Every structure is written in C-alpha cells, then in structure tokens.
C-alpha cells in the first residue's frame, strides 16, 4: 500500500510548497483537493505534473459539493463542473475522482438515490475511454444526512450503480462517530473500496454522558493511532480483502494545528501519521 495525504490540511499554502513537503517527508502519494489547490479543470494537468515531478503518485482528486442540491440551478452547475473535472482527471491519468452525493431534503430517500445513481452512471459512461474510477467518501455531511454513507446506503447505491468503476473512499473515522462497526462495514463492501482515508476518532465518554449523541464536543477526529480504531486489525483486514491501493491521511486533528493553525504542528501531524502507518504495515 502507498501512503499519502489529502492536501486540504494545507489549503492555505501554495501547492508547490505542499508537494515539496510531501516529497521531503517521505510520502508516496498525494490526494489533491479541488477547492484548495485546483480551482478549475484546466489546472488539473499542471498540478498533477508538478506532483509527479516530485515522484509522488497522485492517488485521487477530490471535489466537495452537494450533487443533490435542492436548488436545481446550483445542482446543474456543480454537475456540469464535475463532468468537466472528470474529463480533465481522466486525461491526466489520475485513477480516482472523489465526489460527495449530498442530499435533497425536499425529495424522498428513493428519489435521492435514483437521481444520484443516474448522474453517476452517466459519468461512468462519459469517461469510458479514460477508465477513471469515481468514489464517494462516507462523510455524512454538515447535517449528518448525506445519502450513501452507511452500510444500508451503500447497498442502495450499489444496487443502482453496478459498474465497479464506482466505489468508496472508505473512511472509518466517520463510522466510529455514528455508531457503525467499521470492520463489519468494510467486509460487506470490500470489493468496492477504491481508496482508504486514514483518519481516527476519539470519544470522550464523560462528555457523551453529559450531552448525548445529538450535541457536540463528545468526539474528535484524530490522526491514525490516536483514536479508537485498531489499525493493525483494520489494515490486515483490508489487505486480506485484496486492497493494495493508497492510504490517504486526512489530518483533521485539532491537537496538531488543524484547521489552518500552526503550520509546523500540521506538518508534524502528517509525519506522525506516516510513521505510525508505516510501522503498522511493516508488522502485518
């Protein structure tokens, strides 16, 4: 497995500085955030070339946005730009394009799944010559209601999107905080995992007891190895299922400068995550 990181942690820094850090720190790969480091589709080629010039594998490019926005104009604008990025990413030879399904609160669950599946199947057909894989991250969204972010949601999507060029950016940290067993969840979708996000979650039982699930402050995202996930078990399971792709560290640990605070602390966090994961992999 390659180990990389998601560049969103350094969205306040020039992309050249980010790739220089990744290379000097010993990372194998990088996952590029559109919002921070590739503003338009015509910038994809240059960004990918810059990363490759530092001997970094570009594992994926990630584009935030609600593909089911209830505002039809916003939805169509986002989908149009998504299709443009998909073509540029395919031309650049990047293997994975990560997007987010979102949700339309004015429509039923079934309508949401049908609509997103139609869009995803269209993207797959339009990029057949490139072979790019589309993946969704199981982030539940700002209101914890995005579709396709739980085992039941994945079943709904995969029933509608049969092509294996549609898969998951599987992030166990989100599952921990919503009460889903990540090991059991991964087993059920092991053949549709395209990339793994390496991020952990810590839970404070006293805070949870005081405020309950629907409040805040009882859980925190952490660097891998600093939360509740058993990474040797998790990565052994992934390897046993045939996964040999990229582990992309998504650093959102407030103890190490996130979000957008002390730069040295953020870099230290990335290095700690890299060292930890390398040690885990060496022992499998």
TrEMBL record:
Domain Xylose isomerase-like TIM barrel: 19-267
Name assigned to this protein: Sugar phosphate isomerase/epimerase
One Pfam family, short name: AP_endonuc_2
GO molecular function: isomerase activity
Record-linked Gene3D superfamilies: Divalent-metal-dependent TIM barrel enzymes
Keyword flag Glycoprotein: no
Superkingdom of source: Bacteria
UniProt keyword annotations, A-Z: Isomerase, Plasmid
